[in-house]
Amino acid sequence: MKMNKIFAWDELKRRLDIIRQEGKKVVFTNGCFDLLHVGHIRYLKEAKKQGDVLVVALNSDVSVRCLKGDKRPIIPLSERMEIVAALEMVDFVTFFNEPTPEELIRFIEPDVLVKGGDWSEDTIVGGDFVRSRGGRVVALTYVEGRSTSDLISQIVTRYR
Q1: Cis bond upstream, residue 73 (ω within 30)
Q2: What does the H/E/C string look like for 27-92?
Q3: Sign (positive or negative) of CA dihedral 39, 124, 24, 56
Q4: Closest Cα partner for 29 from 116, 136, 142?
Q5: Chain segment 108-120, per-residue pLDDT in tens
Q6: Angle at 33 between CA 35 and CA 1, to 5 degrees
């Protein structure tokens, strides 16, 4: 059985510093990850390929509500973190309360910053900071028609 993957910021930073000393590249991505679907899985698999260790930061419930509205998230943070941590390609999971992960990105200093293709590389939050440290910013291919909002709409339509 693998070790626990869910960590508070300080412990995560400590572990990532050790990993970097071993010459490994840390990849960071973030999102709500509410109602996990195939788009998320494909995205996380591609993110992992960008380096050696994948850190996934989830928006807290408050942060999700600010971004997506009062009816979200569907799944509470503790369960979303457990689900994401159960994925083979994910090495570490944490969360943030702020509207964006900028503060966390500056704190853990990833080598590679990844977001989905619905973001352009120049608009990815934290991108300037990562590039200023010699890191890379990658916008992955967007999986069309695979979003949590689309999934919720389908469920509501079918089960109305």
Answers
A1: yes
A2: EEEEECCCCCCHHHHHHHHHHHCCCCEEEEEEECHHHHHHHHCCCCCCCCHHHHHHHHHCCCCCCE
A3: negative
A4: 116
A5: 999 999 998 676 7
A6: 95
